[in-house]
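Re: the 306-residue chain
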Amino acid sequence: MRRLLVKIFSLMIVVIFSLIAINYIVPKNENSYYYAFKDKNELLNKDTNKKRIIFVGGSNLAFGLNSNLIEKNFDYDVVNMGLNAGLGLKLMVNNVKPYIKSGDIVVIAPEYEHFKGSLNGNVTINSLINLIPSSIKLLDLEQLLVVIKGIPDFYNSQIIVGIKSLLNKVNIDDIYRRDGFNEDGDLVSHLNKAGKKIQASKGETFEIDDEAIDFLNDFYDYATEKGVQVYMTYPSLFSEQYDYIRDDVDNLTNILTKKLNISIISNADDYAFEEDEIFDSAYHLNAKGRELRTENIIKDLEKVIN
């Protein structure tokens, strides 16, 4: 145990000093997309007399939900915690644990990658803790190892940004920015923008990560003890990409039905969207797709909300 604690402490020291070094190279952008993580947590911490529906997942939720429409259909406040799948399902779920309370409903919409080895996230976590150092407290040893592994790539990307900053050649993104989110946590900066053509890719058949299922079951036990209902839905996905992985999704559904304690309220087929409903990636919906996906979510929630 002592050796493990020493290892954890050593890893944290490496991460902290690496990020401090990067901070000297690259100035922080207060309007960075990942700073929205802080704003979303403030939404969770806000005093409210109403019950809440809290959506947990990656950017499929950020781009693909109209929380105001859901609020109009149910007597609940809605908080959309969606940001980026690269943070990992473990971080996203653990982040909401201190905030949930009796009467809340948590709806988890994992990206499919979260069930095939992305439970602990990727280099995206480096971006988050660089901007919000306190988020490092959410990481366990496995996640810290992911951060350590991602330091070289993160360094390289930040050095490039730093050089561009010195040359005044940093492009200001008009979509991926902190102030692109509304008061419910929905990204709205893309709604009146033109998307781009998406190319579906076949990819490899993936094996289901039982660790992800065990993790979700542990969260379910934790939440139900606090009087919180937990449900799972499917992510939005470009229909051509969905066709490529349909067999994998069917297999995932069968395994989740047997092993996951959380009720799945949706049908994956209903969350496959056509090209004219997609924005700039397979998981990201445009304004049209966002409304259709929200209508589907409302129908699914009506099954479990009296």
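The longest strand covers residues 51-57.
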